[in-house]
């Protein structure tokens, strides 16, 4: 058991995954024929003539994304309807036969470079327009389109796939050759991370509601992320087929009761993907989610060992809706207010304790009760290790108040001690005369703990 836990603690990200974690918050862009038909999923039979954004401006997209504090864009280059936002040489169902006649993939990629953010794309494997879908020839067709996107639009930081699989126009379903798709990406864009339900680099969190698990692990069984690189031997209770039930919706992915049965572990962190509105494509009657909901999603994604891919759907003019622009500006202002100004602290590891249960003093320069967040980061380049922790405030008279209990830390854990929407800070009443220091105690870890950063806001 101990040897396996040490192996689990040493499962670590590669450089692509570390760069993705540092990106943190980025935008999904769903735009296509569905924007003009008021649908979420197209049929593949839509006329190219309906796609006519009169005021298309990808620089406006990028300005909106950057001003919100996001660091990248993932463009839906082709959705399930098969309509391509670039003039692909392999289909007529694209912008080249629309009134628009503009290469939106190129314009988006160029705008990202001008705006200083990263560019990535989503290419839907399901294609309801292609007559090849459901045949061996379709995988070659898909790889040809993928190669166009990988080789003609500069650096790509992210390639996003789902596993949607339905019937094509011939009534057939497709067996996707994902290993061959991944091989192309590694060949032409070796720095790009790949999203897929089952790895190899990033996995789906299991919902589109913006919520992470109670304990979100990046170290998960290879039975789930079977495209990932296995980094350990079998767990002490492993038997063939024992974890065949695993799916992304399972709530105990990566927890001890789960990994002991695994044949081997991989590093595959979760992405939180959701839309700023109820739908993924723009619908005139929809409104953006509340500021509180978006703030909570940020805390439970970027602040819970995940990254946040927030969808911003352009409207029929080809612009991000002004209602969404306004809400994003509000979110940026709230993030800057709540998490933009650090409180000076001195962090010192306390003597005593075990390597898997260290304690740290977080000392203020004076007694205070205005702290609202504690942000913790493990040095995940050495593995994700912390299973649980607690934070205690010590008042000037020496009395102690336990304020926060958490599970995993991982790349970043934002510990929220006060809700900006709830009125009075509960710390103000409980710590009437202020706290002179906080005690962070790791209560359980898989091996020696390596904290990278501790900040207070």
From TrEMBL:
EC number: 3.2.1.51
Broadest EC class assigned to this enzyme: hydrolase
UniProt KW Hydrolase keyword: yes
Domain Glycoside hydrolase family 29 N-terminal: 50-333
Keyword annotations: Glycosidase, Hydrolase, Signal
GO molecular function: alpha-L-fucosidase activity
A Gene Ontology term for the protein's cellular component: lysosome
An example Gene Ontology biological process: fucose metabolic process
SMART domains per UniProt: Alpha_L_fucos
Entry-linked Pfam families: Alpha_L_fucos
Family: Belongs to the glycosyl hydrolase 29 family.
PANTHER family to which the protein is assigned, alphabetical: ALPHA-L-FUCOSIDASE (PTHR10030), ALPHA-L-FUCOSIDASE-RELATED (PTHR10030:SF37)
This protein's name: alpha-L-fucosidase
Organism, as annotated: Candidatus Eisenbergiella merdavium
């Amino acid at each position: 058991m101990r040897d396996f836990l040490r192996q689990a603690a040493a499962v670590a990200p590669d450089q692509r995954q570390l760069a993705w974690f540092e990106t943190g918050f980025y935008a999904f862009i769903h735009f296509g024929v569905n924007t003009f038909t008021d649908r979420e999923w197209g049929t593949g039979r839509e006329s190219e003539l309906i796609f006519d954004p009169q005021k298309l401006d990808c620089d406006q997209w990028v300005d909106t994304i950057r001003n919100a504090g996001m660091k990248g864009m993932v463009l839906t280059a082709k959705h399930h309807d098969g309509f391509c936002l670039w003039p692909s040489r392999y289909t007529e169902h694209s912008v080249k036969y629309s009134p628009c006649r503009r290469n939106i993939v190129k314009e988006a990629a160029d705008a990202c470079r001008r705006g200083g953010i990263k560019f990535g794309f989503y290419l839907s494997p399901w294609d309801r327009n292609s007559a090849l879908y459901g045949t061996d020839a379709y995988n070659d067709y898909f790889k040809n389109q993928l190669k166009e996107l990988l080789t003609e639009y500069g650096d790509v930081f992210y390639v996003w796939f789902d596993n949607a699989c339905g019937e094509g126009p011939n009534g057939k379903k497709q067996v996707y050759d994902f290993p061959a798709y991944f091989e192309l990406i590694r060949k032409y864009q070796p720095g790009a991370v790949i999203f897929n339900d089952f790895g190899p680099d990033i996995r789906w969190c299991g919902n589109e509601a913006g919520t992470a698990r109670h304990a979100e692990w990046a170290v998960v069984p290879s039975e789930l992320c079977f495209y990932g690189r296995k980094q350990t031997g079998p767990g002490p209770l492993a038997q063939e087929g024992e974890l065949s039930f695993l799916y992304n919706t399972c709530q105990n992915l990566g927890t001890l009761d789960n990994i002991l049965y695994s044949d081997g572990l991989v590093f595959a962190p979760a992405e939180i993907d959701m839309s700023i509105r109820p739908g993924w494509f723009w619908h005139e009657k929809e409104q953006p989610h509340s500021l509180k909901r978006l703030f909570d999603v940020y805390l439970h994604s970027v602040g819970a060992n995940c990254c946040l891919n927030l969808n911003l759907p352009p409207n029929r003019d080809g612009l991000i809706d002004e209602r969404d622009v306004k809400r994003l500006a509000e979110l940026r202002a709230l993030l800057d207010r709540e998490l933009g100004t650090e409180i000076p602290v001195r962090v010192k590891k306390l003597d005593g304790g075990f390597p898997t249960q260290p304690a740290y003093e977080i000392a203020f320069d004076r007694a205070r009760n205005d702290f609202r967040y504690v942000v913790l980061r493990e040095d995940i380049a050495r593995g994700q290790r912390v299973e649980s922790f607690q934070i205690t405030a010590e008042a000037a008279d020496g009395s102690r108040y336990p304020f926060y209990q958490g599970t995993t830390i991982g790349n970043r854990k934002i510990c929220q001690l006060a809700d900006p929407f709830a009125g009075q800070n509960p710390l103000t009443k409980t710590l009437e005369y202020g706290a002179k220091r906080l005690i962070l105690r790791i209560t359980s870890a898989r091996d020696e703990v390596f904290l990278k950063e501790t900040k207070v806001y």
